[in-house]
Amino acid sequence: MLNQYLNKIERKFRKFAISNLMLYIVLGMAVVWIADLILSANPNNTVNLYQLLCFDRDKILQGEVWRVISFIFMPPSTILIILTPIILYFYWFMGSSLESQWGAFKFNVFYFTGIIGCIAAGFIIGFATNEYLNLSLFLAFAILFPNAQLLAFYVIPIKAKWLALIDGIIIIYDFIKGSFDIRIFIILSIINIIIFFGKDFFSMMYYLIRRLKYRHIKKIK
Q: How far is Cα 22 from Cα 162, in angstroms, rounded to an integer?
């Protein structure tokens, strides 16, 4: 049903789709990351770039409207600097893989639906990050390419579906244990996954959990 609807819209609006969308998003993150490194190296610097770009409902309503979208370009926070380029490459790889599978228009709809969900969550609860938005890329990738080999901790080869299982369990745990605001934020931040893959995602989670449970029972016997 969704695919049929998207196909009808695509015939009318395909020319407005942004090709290589994830490349531009990743380049934006890279620019912010490099700029922050340069500013941090200056002992006289008083500008906190991340604080300037993060989503803050109160400051947006006071006129800092760029925050509505600038938080999308916040790079991932890591302990080791060297990991940031690797993660950014991974974002680009997943996004380009989804675009190759779907086409630019459908990928645009998927990603922008996630952005709109994050922004809506931000105005409802006062804050927003791109953490779950970027996670939605991986979940979509794992659903479409479940047997793709990835490197857990950048060393251990593991199939995408098993990493997705771990992320899915974390999301469910955060949802159950989190406050009302956190639950709203999680739902709206992965609304693109719910719309595009609701049944597939939960079916995959159910299948993988049952498979693990079966293996555990088999070992006991």
A: 24
